[in-house]
Write a structure and sequence with these properties.
With 76 residues, the protein is mainly α. 63% of the residues lie in helices and 0% in strands. It is built from three helices and no strands. Helix 1 runs parallel beside helix 3.
Amino acid sequence: LGAFDVIEEYTVAELRDLVYREIMELFEGDRVAADLWLSSPIKVLGDRTPASFMATKTGVQKIRNLLRKWEEGTVS
């Protein structure tokens, strides 16, 4: 891995942590419910699990956008 790859991975890890905290807030600290949501297929994600998007910056951003829409009530 080059220096860019290490920075990229660190950034993805940071984003993953941030999104997990946001999910925990959404589920009011219920880790079981948050983990269940992460591992459940979601229709708006093409029946993929949110966890399957957490390996890339683009994927993590997609989950963050979904969380925002959910909080706003535009996605069920």
